[in-house]
Amino acid sequence: MSHIRYLLAATSVLAASIVMAPAQAATPKDQLIIGMNMVNLTSLDPHNVNSYESYHIISNLYDTLVRNDLTAPGKLLPGLAKSWTVQPDGSIEFTLDERATFQSGRKVTAEDVAYSFSRAVKLGLLAKTYYDQWGYTPANVAEKFIAKDEKTFVLKAAAPIAPSLKMSALTRAYAAVVDSKEVEKNAKNGDMGRAWLASNAAGSGPFKLNRWNPNDIALLDRFDDYWGGKPSMRRVVVRHLPESQTQRLLLEKGDLDVGFQLVSADIDGLAKNPDIVIDRLKGSGFYYFNMSTEDPDLKKPEVRRAIRYCINYKDINDVVMKNYGEYTTTFVPEEIPGYIPNIGNVYDPAKCKAELTAAGYPNGFSKQILALSSVPYADLAAAIQQNLTAANIKTEIQTGNGDQTYGPMRNRKFQLGVGRTASSAPDDPDGWVRTHAYNPDNKPDATLSNLQAWRSSFELPEVNKLLDEAAAITDDEAKRVQLYKKALQIFEDSAPPIIPISRRVDPYAKSARLINYVGDPSWMTRWNAVEKKD
Amino acid sequence: MSHATDNAVRASGRRLNWRRYSRWSTTLASVATTLALLVVLTFVIGRLMPVDPVIAVVGADADRATYLKVQQELGLDQPLYRQFVIFVGQLFRGDFGTTLLTGRPVMDDIVRVLPATIELATVTIILGAGIGIPLGVFAAVNRGRAADHVVRLIALLGHSTPIFWIGMVGLMVFYAKLGWVGGSGRVDIYYEGMTDEKTGFLLLDSLLAGDMDVFWSAVSHIILPASVLAYSKIAYLSRITRSFMLEQLHQEYVTTARAKGVSARNVVWKHAFKNIRVQLVTVVALSYGGMLEGAVLIETVFGWPGFGQYLTNALVIGDMNVVVACTLIIGCVFITLNLISDLLYKFFDPRIK
Predict the structure, then answer these.
(1) CA A276 from chain center: how many Å?
(2) Between chains, do B51 and A403 touch, taking CB under 8 Å as contact?
(3) Which of B52, B212, B188 is nearest to A401 (CA)?
(4) Which of A262, A275, B65, B273 could disulfide-link A266, Cβ–Cβ 3.0 to 4.6 Å?
């Protein structure tokens, strides 16, 4: 009996401790507490990441040559480079800021920049997608990435690409500058720090990496000697919180300063709270609906044209895509040069049926739609399914994870699908048109799987030619934009198999106590200027 | 004592010794067979999973060359039997390989996540057994009366309500509304990383470091998930204790004890309960073992960085090394617990002595 008594006594002591536990306080004034689902944060190697979660942390550990001006889209601010000039041959010469210092105490040199850029190309890391497009190969980097002197870096042109396109891409994590000495010190078998940089950092950014436990937590400490000025936050804690509801509770209690990946209901709930600010960042891509032209029915332009009339874009955006996207009709958004009003999507159910009948399908057909099982993809697919049913097109929705849904689309083995794109150059028409309309090689073994047109087996040689021509123009901005416009018009007129449904919006919630927390639409958000009210 | 008897005693002694050896060797052989089967099975499961681990590493949009390169790096281009030989070799060296995603040693990750789960499971089992067992005894003694019905109703509710729902509601009431307990995680987020990790058990580490703020924060964070988990354990243990007890209370020795005038309390605890201890030990041990697999739903709801979440994430992305390592560890935990409860049987059950 006595041991049972002890157990009961211990239990009541534990229960009593709930009451004794100190009351919850708001987050400390000198710490920034961020919650997000960190499942996609798989590496901290700036040259080998493709998730926005990673960008967030990397952009505070490292510096890039230039930064986006968040108050004026398309405008660039100095970063490690205090100035830059474009040479007549398309080369860009950067002059580095002499104050710039790595966290190791070394000055940032042009050698470090050349090393960082070459590293991505030589190791074939994810960043190489950019460098590939610009004509850089492991064989030519030594003569294209040049450290002219300690403070002058020259990015020689290797292909006819407009320097402005490169400049805007150089703001991304991909172009972060690493401390070459520090990396080489930790390199194994000449891997240029591939293994080490995946979970360590060697940058010049305002915060130092204290600890990163995957799917758990990332702790960053202030770099007191940051060359751009000492940050106010002593510490930044990024906590893995996979449940939207949990993040909402923590935000409402003041235990969390910023929350990401919230579901629509929680965003609506938090929006009513005066202590919380919902910031809706306009993302650089679309939620889309695509068709494979390998399919014998969808191969016919008449059918694809008819289907485009079947979808109720406005309602879908108001209901299903609320908080995730904005109504759109075509592939270049309004604020980007090259936008054409009134082309693309039109909802007209009568015309949809009539055109399907004219195409020889009065009784429709049956197809399968692939969709990620997460929000909002599955709901988006269901809404489209409903619209198509009204036109006698029967669809079955197949949901799954990335491999199961994007996988078949990348391998061109699908009929219909929904997904989300990201423009390769957010402030330039090139990125927007290219991602969706460009397909220079329609052969199955070309594996241009990051080009949407290739995935749909859809090739318009004329559009390809216009885009190549436009990208090579370096001196006539108006002419360049005109070419993109022409390409977009041709693309939209040819019953494209890719239909934009919503302009992507990335919402997040932040505490009203935060000052200067400015979200970056490319998720290169910086924390060094963040302060907190009492 | 005659020679004949002497020989007979020696012979029977030898037989006894032999039987003991044979019992031990049988146990050892069965443990070894189970382990070997476990190794084969985990390898097969790991290789048969319908996910492409290479895509998980290189990302959705990587080109073919990168894909092939990574495939080679991971040894996934080798024939299956070679992959198995490599696998067994690594196990003998205590090397579970690296995680596909982060390239870190799997063992390091497990050493990090396991204490979180053990801590939660231990507090849970203390609460669950500490309340559930007496409750079951109480219900059995009061069989058919109101008290019995109340206990059975509690048990039924605990058994049939989804645990993540109770967790969610618990958070909303006790954390969000009342502010009695901490929210998500093992400690208030701003205390994360403040205490030196000596053992990985936060309650212990913070006490050792004398960091009482962190300790109380950790207590306030563990109490709710542990209570929610304990509720379903209470439900289970009270039901099973009740039925074990009922069986004993109907035995003749209980009637005899009563007839001899032994007090009601002593009849229940000294006589009847003593006889169900053995069975209860097994049940509690297996229950505890079950929790060491991690309580995925509760870990997700409470943002508890434990074993369950770690394994589930690995399953979702097809991180084979992690899945294999975790499965092996869970298997070993159960084999060990079975061994321990076998030993405890001997301790508690005079017939086995």
Answers:
(1) 24
(2) yes
(3) B52
(4) A262
Q: Do A437 and A387 share a structural domain?
A: yes
Residue B208 neighbours by CB distance under 10 Å = 14
Residues A256 and A379 in one domain: no
Give first-to-last CA distance, chain A, whole Å: 54
Measure the CA–CA gap between B45 and B321, rounded to whole angstroms.
Answer: 11
Residue A27 to residue B318, Cβ atoms within 8 A? no
Quote the CA–CA distance of B103 and A43 in Å, as a whole number.
Answer: 9
Q: How far is B101 from chain A (nearest CA, A)?
A: 6
Instruction: Give the global pTM.
Output: 0.79
Asked if B217 and A255 come within 8 Å (Cβ–Cβ), the reply is no
Is A253 in contact with B183 (Cβ distance < 8 A)?
yes
3 state SS of A280 = strand
Reference A162, options A484, A417, A499; nearest CA is: A484
ipTM score for this prediction: 0.72
Among the partner-chain residues A8, A18, A42, the one whose CB lies closest to the CB of B102 is A42
Domain that holds residue A175: 66-185
User: In chain B, which residue's Cα lies nearest the Cα of A254?
Assistant: B176
CATH number of residue A172's parent domain = 3.90.76.10
Whether residue A484 sits in one domain with residue A402: yes
Residues A260 and A114 placed together within one structural domain of the fold: no
**And the tokens for A261?**
């990946």
Give the nearest chain B residue to A401 (CA atoms): B316
Which residue in A112, A118, A110 sits closest to A202, CA to CA?
A112
With CB atoms and an 8 Å threshold, state whether B193 touches A219: yes
Rounded to whole angstroms, how far apart are CA atoms A270 and A288? 28
Q: Six-digit token pair at A503?
A: 């302009």
Which single residue is written with the structure tokens 């190969």? A137
Residue A331 lies in a domain: yes
Give, for all 534 residues of chain A, the pLDDT tens digit. Answer: 444 455 445 545 444 444 444 344 588 999 999 999 887 787 899 998 877 788 999 999 999 999 988 888 778 999 999 999 999 888 999 999 999 999 999 999 999 999 999 999 998 887 877 788 788 999 999 999 999 999 999 999 998 888 888 888 899 888 999 999 999 999 988 889 988 998 899 999 999 999 998 888 999 999 999 999 999 999 999 998 888 888 999 999 999 999 998 988 899 999 999 999 999 988 888 999 999 999 999 999 999 999 999 999 999 999 999 999 999 999 999 888 899 998 999 999 999 999 999 999 999 999 999 998 877 898 999 999 999 999 999 999 998 777 678 878 888 999 999 998 877 677 889 889 988 999 988 998 877 777 899 999 999 999 999 999 998 887 788 999 999 999 999 999 999 999 999 999 989 999 999 999 999 888 899 999 999 988
The values of phi and psi at residue A344, to 5°, are 95, -130
d(CA B225, CA B266): 36
Of B58, B66, B193, the CB nearest to A210: B193
